[in-house]
What we know:
This protein is of the alpha/beta class. About 50% of the residues lie in helices and about 10% in strands.
Amino acid sequence: MRSTWPRGLALTLTLAASAACAAAQDATEDDALARARVLLEEHILIDGHNDLPWAIREHAAAPLDVEAYDLRRPAPGNTDLARLRAGGVGGQFWSVYVPGELGYEDYARVQLEQIDVARRVIERYPDDLALALTAEDVERAFATGRIASLLGMEGGHAIQNSLGALRAYFDLGVRYMTLTHNVTLDWADSTNDARRHGGLTRFGEEVVREMNRLGMLVDLSHTSVETMDDALRVSEAPVIFSHSSARALCDVPRNVPDEILRRLPQNGGVVMVTFVSVFVSQELASATAPLTAEYERRATGVTDAKERRAIREQVFAGHDLPAATLAQVADHVEHVRGVAGVDHVGIGSDFDGAGAYLPVGLEDVSRFPHLFAELIRRGWSDADLAKLAGENLLRALRRAEAVSVRLRGERPASTATIEALDGGSRVR
């Protein structure tokens, strides 16, 4: 998710928490944190969602310039090489995000540009990053001391109702696709937009089937509960939620309800708990709800992204809002484990998508060990922490690959169209 939270609000929260952050960062490491660091040296930590490619696209000094956004130096956002290493990151899904609010005609162009940015980043730092297309690639990169780098598309709008485009994106390295972002598609309902289909249309179901045939993970973050339900019914491979938390603890539409969590064991899927403050803290979510409603009222009909951000900043400016905490993120991890089981929980930070709007204690990619230390203090075993870190996601990816091998032997690439399955042209 690329957040549009105003800079002023993020700064207010950051300043309010600065003393606590400094104290936490300067404190002598305890046994739990030392153990967490060792664990992440031995087991692969795979983060499900990082928006660095979009941060590079929006870089004020040199938009889209991978060389100017130098990861060997301290970067302006949440991510650079030194902090990735300090955070024990062994694998990263780089989000190749495209806003659904763009004009329909711009989707494919911007999607290709974002894939290009991500791949150029990976190629620029060959001693630190390695492109990964399979679970075996992830393990090979980790064994050679590099961070396995996978690509995840955020929003099925970018396929422009074309299964051929879906296959082309897979061939370019995309290994998951979030079915929707913040807008409802011609074939799938988003959780943040009008429900037009009651979940997936017949073409939407065919998208899921073709993703299964390809070996592309179906990502259900941002989708409506009805879309989640339909995807779980149709998918023959494990699904993921690349960056979502538990709705039972923070009642916002972007989080996963317990009735969906309870279905994950049968599917084999994984919820990768996110750090976005408003999806973590119920107190914060409740405080921001009326502000969000006012923003949506003022922004109705406004299509320019910069103008929409300016409206949001005006609405949220000057409000003293509570900050989320690392402990609350740990609560979400434990809730998913408690309902879905320890085999179905992972980590999906949304760094460089949430900006500075992050929980106290989880300000950037260097802070992952602190979350694991908190769970160690709560009694988590090394075996369960290894599952959380990356083993669960790797299992889901391997299963998706195995399903792909079977399905490719059973049927050819789908030539279905939205016109044939859903009736009439849906292209805007």
